[in-house]
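Handout, section B. The chain below has 129 residues.
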Amino acid sequence: MFVLSRKSNESIVINDDITVSVVELREDKVRLGIVVPKGATVYRQEVYDSIHKAQDASKSVWQQTPKRESVSLEALDRLAGDLTKKSKSYVDRAMVFEAILEAVAAMEANLSSATSLDELKEILLRRRH
């Protein structure tokens, strides 16, 4: 870890495009101002850790799922790529799969009326129209 001392209204520059400034010093807190390139994300450590914990959990769910046909994986990868472009945030197949599982859980009452896999697919396809 690189440790610096800064006074109020002093800054540091990282990689020529990130500036961290000390805005205010309090007894038990330091308020920072951060200038980052457009589209960059900045998180408090606890939020960052929570996001990565959720991503690790979704990867774990995906890895526990039986192997699927490569066509299905390619469809998830395409969807993840499209979402990454549209949201300007990284999305991978595990995250897409987790979102699908969450949607299925939310629709569970409706889906539980299915009596076969074909009927389940039919209910899911009807939901999108």
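Note. The chain has two domains: 8-42, 45-127. Compare this with the example in section A.
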